[in-house]
Design brief:
Largest sheet: 7 strands, mixed
Radius of gyration: 20 Å
Structural class: alpha+beta
Distance between the termini: 74 Å
Low-confidence stretches: 5-28
Mean pLDDT: 85
Strand content: 25-35%
Helix content: 10-25%
Number of helices: 2
């Protein structure tokens, strides 16, 4: 068998395995299900914003509730802020706590960030009581912000 036919046979076998593989539900994957249409985002930031050092980030959620880590309530989770990640983290296990993945396990919906001046990418993601992303994941589109000492201070009108 020549190399082209062997390669084609391997590819076809792999495709057949994918097509015939059973669908895995959220429960079988160990991930909590998320309801259709659930979303997260930023209440006070938008793509392209220029912010001063030491700015506040506020999160939003729609279609789900917020509960602290460790509290297992259906259709809830807690926020995780993804900072300057090129790709999403592994969705099949707990999100690690790193400088680029900040956990809000007490159910917080805002935080003060002090990022270095320059461009940054932010995303917000909901994860379940065990810090595992939901299935399907509830994650925002990335926004690009620039931290600049020349940016005006932002007033907090939510007293």
């Amino acid at each position: 068998m020549n190399l082209r036919i062997r390669s084609l046979s391997i590819i076809l076998f792999a495709l057949a395995a994918l097509v015939t593989a059973p669908m895995v539900t959220a429960a079988e994957s160990g991930r909590s299900p998320s309801p259709d249409g659930a979303t997260v985002g930023f209440a006070n930031l938008a793509d392209g914003d220029v912010v001063p050092p030491g700015f506040t980030v506020k999160f939003t959620v729609s279609g789900m509730g917020i509960a602290p880590a460790g509290v297992d309530i259906e259709n809830t989770g807690h926020f995780h802020l993804l900072i300057d990640l090129d790709a999403l983290p592994d969705m099949n296990g707990p999100l690690p706590a790193t400088p680029n993945i900040v956990h809000f396990g007490k159910g917080q919906s805002e935080t003060q960030l002090d990022l270095p001046e320059g461009p940054h990418t932010l995303r917000v993601m909901l994860a379940d009581y065990l810090h595992v992303p939901h299935d399907p994941p509830v994650v925002s589109e990335p926004i690009r912000i620039t931290v600049s000492s020349a940016a005006p201070a932002v007033e907090d009108n939510a007293n």
